[in-house]
Specification:
Layout (H helix, E strand, L loop, with lengths): L2 H20 L4 H8 L3 H8 L7 H10 L6 H9 L7 E3 H4 L5 H12 L3 E6 L10 H15 L5 H11 L9 E7 L10 H14 L5 E6 L13 E4 L3 E5 L3 E5 L2 H15 L5 H14 L4
Parallel strand pairs: 2-3, 3-4
Antiparallel strand pairs: 1-7, 2-5, 5-6, 6-7
Length: 282
């Protein structure tokens, strides 16, 4: 079984445990109500067994939370990590929370993350208010149930990995992301301040690709590289989860070529500071 598959299964199990706990049910009581062996409840919660669609329906109803069934089914549908195309419609059927839990687990299982963002701040570096706007807007765009506060909580929990001495984070950010603003100016100012302070921190490498930089390779879309085992690419309608060696090598080359033109350290801070000044705020 692949590490990626197990990571996603554990995220689903953690969500099942949370639902049971919130319902005030002991594991043995839930098992009795569903007519299962207690060991099955334990295996599902600990990511040791893959639930069927019927299992998830039964679990949600037993916890008196039929409203979360679409979220659970979406997580189950996305379990297979070898599935390249992952529809946002399915993944976000129950809101953003489930996908954020997968992101937490994926980050926990990774030692080195490299990423490119073209028009927004990476989730790992977002402030709560900036993330809140992103989730609210996306829920409206997709016409899905907003689970913003839970999603923000998960995103902030994921950021705890930034302080793990066993991990490194190397990100490239197009300068446009410092100016593209889908949030109030005050929120953007706070976000830029956070980016400014992240530059130069240990285990975090943040490079800015300036507007006028000469690039060996343009930046067509955002992508994230998890160790040397997985690349995630986001499109409007779906995510691509790429695990083939040739795909990973191609994205590594794209990242390396773009990194040649990035500004770091004091130069990166100047670019961020210039964007902050453009907001014309105190």
């Amino acid at each position: 079984m692949s590490t990626d598959y197990q990571t996603a299964r554990e995220a689903l199990g953690a969500r099942l445990r949370e639902l049971r706990t919130e319902a005030g049910l002991e594991g043995r009581h839930l098992a009795a109500e569903l007519g299962w062996q207690p060991s099955k409840v334990s295996r599902l919660q600990n990511g040791k067994q893959t639930p069927t669609a019927t299992d998830l329906t039964s679990w949600a109803r037993a916890c008196e939370r039929p409203d979360v069934e679409p979220e659970l089914q979406g997580l189950r549908a996305g379990l297979e990590m070898n599935q390249r195309h992952r529809s946002w419609r399915r993944q976000l059927a129950g809101g953003h929370r489930g996908r954020q839990e997968i992101a937490v687990r994926q980050t926990d299982a990774t030692k080195a993350i490299r990423g490119l963002e073209v028009s927004r701040v990476p989730g790992l570096f977002q402030t709560p208010e900036y993330a809140r706007v992103i989730f609210d807007t996306n829920a409206e765009f997709r016409g899905i149930t907003p689970t913003t506060e839970d999603a923000v909580e998960a995103r902030m929990r994921r950021q705890e990995a930034l302080y793990d001495p066993g991990k490194t984070f190397r990100f490239l950010l197009c300068e446009a992301a410092l100016y593209h603003r889908s949030c109030p100016a005050e929120v953007m100012a706070e976000q830029l301040d956070r980016l400014y302070n992240l530059v130069g921190q240990r285990r975090i490498e943040l490079g800015i690709l300036p507007f006028g930089a000469q690039l060996r390779r343009t930046a067509p879309h955002a992508f994230w590289i998890y160790d040397r085992r997985l690349v995630i690419v986001e499109t409007i309608s779906e995510e691509l989860w790429l695990t083939a060696d040739e795909d990973i090598q191609l994205y590594e080359r794209a990242w390396d070529w773009l990194a040649e033109s990035a500004e770091h350290g004091a130069a990166a801070r100047r670019l961020i500071g210039r964007a902050r000044v453009s907001l014309d705020l105190p």
